[in-house]
Amino acid sequence: MLNPPAWALHSLVKARVGHLACSTKYGIPLNVPICFAFDGSRIYSSIDEKPKKAAPLALRRVSNIKENSNVCLTVDKYSEDWRKLQYVLVLGRAKVNQQGKKFPEAIALLRKKYRQYNSMKLEMRPLITIQPVRIVAWKPLTTPRTVKPKEYD
Amino acid sequence: MLNPPAWALHSLVKARVGHLACSTKYGIPLNVPICFAFDGSRIYSSIDEKPKKAAPLALRRVSNIKENSNVCLTVDKYSEDWRKLQYVLVLGRAKVNQQGKKFPEAIALLRKKYRQYNSMKLEMRPLITIQPVRIVAWKPLTTPRTVKPKEYD
């Protein structure tokens, strides 16, 4: 599905955090929470200046994507009322770049969404770009609408 | 690290939702939000009665785990104050069962954590069990403690 419902697109634009799963080519997955921005067609995530376990290009997410571009970015809402649960899975192909035509736009989009990025030199950091291949949007089956008595008036 | 810090264990016990990444043996990852319970050594998640895209055993997460047991369960907290971010990654091996010695205990633990499960027949549903192999606990580097002036008194 590449024409996801409006609520799913809204969720991809607005969600403050997503979960990025990538995998070695041998199928060993890694799953990290990420900040990201969605321009309506691609998803961008900076290997930003938040403290990391390794240098930017030595990070597991980067080495995984370099050997295997398949990723799954998940954006969801949890609620104790399980009828309100929802998730969006973006199954796609990722790459890691430090330059490119879209690079300045992507950085600007990330800064617009996260004011925290105004004090980070994202221009100097690698950027993950995800090209969606399939988008899966899930909500529990719609329960029948409760008809208010006055609608029978 | 199999002796994670106390905050990470607490997070694994208390978190209402986690994100489970699994992968085909060819490295195509899937990442789904799940409800789960942690008994201090293993993690349990029921293929419960929330509406799904397929029958329990036909679900992608189940077929992935059957062909490749490597998984990564991620539990995290997002905050706009990025000094308060944290995540715990459980890298482990998963299996899917409909019976077994631990099965009733796992179901009881899930029901204790989620009252929503009291009205679901979890006994009839497959259960994912994750055996952690490595646990990675991450918080930003501790920033120096702000010393209040009166401490100089």
| Lateral arrangement of strands in the main beta sheet of chain A | 2-1-5-6-7-4-3
What is the typical, i.e. mean, pLDDT of chain A? 90
Count of DSSP helices of chain A? 3
Give a short account of the largest sheet of chain A: 7 strands, antiparallel
> What's the architecture of chain A in CATH terms?
Roll
Determine the CATH superfamily of chain A. Answer: Electron Transport, Fmn-binding Protein, Chain A
Number of strands of chain A: 7
In CATH's first tier, which class of chain A applies? Mainly Beta
What string, H for helix and E for strand, traces the elements of chain A in order?
Answer: HEEEEHEEHE
Oligomerization status of the protein chains: homodimer
Most extensive interface, residues per chain? A-B, 39 and 39 residues
Report on the structure:
The structure is a homodimer of 153-residue chains. Chain A has 153 residues and is of the alpha+beta class. Chain A has a single domain, classed as Roll (Pnp Oxidase, Chain A). Chain A is built from three helices and seven strands. Chain A has helices spanning 6-14, 60-67, 103-113; strands at residues 18-23, 29-34, 37-38, 43-46, 70-77, 86-97, 127-138. The longest helix of chain A is centred in the C-terminal third of the chain and has 11 residues, at 103-113. In chain A, 35% of the residues are buried. Mean pLDDT of chain A is 90; it is low at 143-153. Chains A and B meet through β1, β2, β5 and β6 of A and β1, β2, β5 and β6 of B.
